[in-house]
Write a structure and sequence with these properties.
589 residues; alpha+beta; 5-stranded mixed beta sheet
Length: 589
């Protein structure tokens, strides 16, 4: 199948878990090469073993190791153990794909060489049948059942049933089964036809295998196919074709187990080609060569087994020696631990005593600090209450003065003006005209003072109109330009809050008039949800804000800051000499 495309698609599923993709990539490399590309597979298995040593790896790494043992080990003991361990670990898992891949590895083991434990094979095969759903999976189930029965593991009756099931399933599901699965089914059917002496039918199915064509790593399948074709053309007495196919078989020796391929090749030549030509000397030589290679193969396998057993024995002896050394280390360690515990116990008691003394001292210090904080809080609360009382008193005094100006002095001035207007004297006298004019001015000033001091203006008009009116009045004097900008001011606030904010703004503007020598003052009012932001800027002389004296008990900046603090707001001064002053205030509303 298209490995590059599959790799690209699979990588996108493992972006957040790259270690699983690396494990899958290594496993896939081993599954594709099937023991026919040692360089690639050994690179993959080295990475797998490194991951298994570092953190135990993943189940994909364990499967990669199991399949590597399947394709490369002459002794299948380790592969059996690995596949069995992995499957037992996966039994409670819901991952059907990993279970199936593990069971396929076990069934391949039983379809190779002389592993003919029917009870074990039946267990793995039945487990796989429970999970198989796709046509390819059902085809594999029937293929491995027939292959196992065909190795003299089953009776003639079981073999006849399994080959019939395989053939019927292939005919009924031909278009649903993948080509790389069909070619294995073709091989079993071709061998069955050849055994039944149906040479032409066997040739047809062997030809189907070559036409697919199989992967270049399917060397065992190609090797067996070409051997069978050579055998068939020998039976048909077409010896040139037989030699041609045997040459192709020789080109597809199993890369990992070449000796086994030579054994089969020489045996086929002896019993099919040379015997048919009555070249008995050549047949004898090929058969002898086959047996010598088989002896070499068995000798190598035995040496490998002996070497493995010796390694295990040395490992066991080393493990035993390590256990003895570990026991000595544990004994020494126990004595050392006892000494350390005694030392620690004594040190612990001393530390606890020191900590207890230190803790008492810290508690005394914390208690003194808490008392001081309580005193500071009480002083602060008293100060805020004093400011609140002062503000309240000032407002009452303003209202009282405004009332007296308006009710008493205002009425008196109005009466004087009325009598003056009705007096019978010359209206052309300049002195009288000036007196009348001054009287009018005095009346208007008293009336204006009464209105400016009366908080009722705030109650009637609200915060923004009152500030704008104040700005307009100051601007009309032509000595200072006051502008007002507002953003997002919605419904009116509580009257006492509006009054406090107005007095703060009024005092800031008054400070600009008295001390800043400014020509322009800008007032910005911005409401953000439950917060009111006020900025009062002037282009006056400015000052060093770090040196502002905090001893002014009147309406200086310190007192304004206390007012803002009383409203639970923030007060910030930004001023430089010669650069003007900006006052920033944030008040929750």
């Amino acid at each position: 199948m298209d490995y590059k495309k599959a790799k690209s698609i699979t990588a996108s599923f493992f972006e957040s878990e790259p270690k699983y993709f690396k494990s899958l990539e290594s496993l896939t490399s081993i599954l594709i090469h099937k023991g026919q590309d040692s360089r690639m597979d050994f690179d993959a298995i080295n990475l797998i073993r490194r991951r298994l040593e570092i953190d135990g790896g993943t189940v994909l790494d364990s499967l990669g190791l199991a399949y590597h043992e399947l394709y490369y080990s002459r002794i299948n003991e380790d592969a059996h153990y690995l596949f069995e361990s992995i499957y037992q670990g996966l039994k409670k898992s819901k991952n059907r794909g990993l279970k199936k891949l593990t069971l396929i590895g076990s069934m391949i083991l039983f379809s190779r060489e002389n592993t003919l434990n029917e009870k074990q094979f039946d267990y793995y095969h039945s487990e796989f049948e429970k999970l198989a759903q796709l046509p390819d999976e059902l085809a594999l189930s029937k293929y491995y059942r027939n292959f196992f029965d065909g190795m003299s593991a089953g009776t003639p009756e079981t073999y006849a049933k399994s080959i019939s099931d395989l053939y019927n399933f292939l005919i009924q599901n031909h278009n649903k089964i993948s080509d790389h699965i069909k070619i294995y089914m073709y091989q079993n059917i071709a061998l069955d036809f050849r055994v039944k002496n149906k040479i032409d039918s066997a040739e047809v199915y062997l030809g189907k295998i070559i036409k697919v064509p199989p992967s270049k790593y399917e060397r065992k399948l190609l090797f067996n196919t070409y051997l069978e074709l050579g055998r068939i053309y020998t039976l048909k007495n077409e010896l040139s074709k037989a030699v041609e196919f045997w040459g192709l078989a020789k080109d597809n020796y199993d890369v990992h187990d070449t000796i086994h391929s030579k054994v089969l090749f020489d045996r086929y030549l002896a019993f099919n080609y040379y015997e048919n030509l009555k070249l008995y000397d050549s047949a004898y030589y090929s058969l002898k060569t086959s047996r010598l290679n088989e002896a070499k193969k068995n000798y190598a396998a035995n040496n490998s087994l002996i070497s493995e057993l010796n390694t295990k024995l040395r490992t066991k002896e080393k493990e035993k020696q390590i256990l003895v050394e570990q026991q000595k280390v544990r004994t020494n360690r126990n004595w050392l631990i006892a000494a350390i515990l005694a030392l620690l116990l004594g040190s612990g008691i001393a530390v606890l005593l020191q900590k207890n003394t230190s803790k008492k001292r810290q508690l005394a210090e914390q208690e003194a600090l808490l008392k001081q904080q309580r005193v500071d809080n009480l002083l602060k609360e008293q100060e805020l209450l004093s400011i609140d009382a002062m503000i309240s008193g000032q407002e009452k005094e303003r209202q009282k003065v405004a009332g007296e100006l308006h009710d008493d002095l205002g009425s008196l001035m109005a009466t004087i003006k009325l009598h003056f207007d009705n007096a019978k004297f010359s209206k052309q006298d300049p002195a009288l005209q000036n007196a009348q004019k001054l009287l009018e001015e005095a009346y208007q000033k008293i009336r204006g003072m009464a209105h400016s001091k009366n908080s009722g203006v705030m109650s009637d008009q609200g915060l923004l109109p009152t500030i704008k009116k104040m700005a307009k009045t100051i601007t009309e004097t032509n000595t200072l330009e006051v502008t007002v900008e507002d953003f997002g001011l919605g419904e009116r606030m509580e009257n006492s809050l509006e009054l406090s904010i107005f007095r703060i703004v009024q005092e800031l503007v008054t400070n600009a008039i008295k001390h800043a020598e400014a020509s322009k003052v800008n007032i910005q009012l911005t409401q953000h949800d439950d917060n009111l932001n006020i900025i009062v800027e002037d282009d006056g002389l400015g000052f060093d804000s770090s040196k502002v004296e905090k001893r002014d008990s009147g309406m200086g900046l310190t007192t304004i800051e206390k007012r803002v603090e009383h409203l639970e707001g923030n007060f910030t001064i930004d001023s430089l000499l010669g650069k003007g002053t900006s006052i920033l205030i944030d008040i929750p509303i």
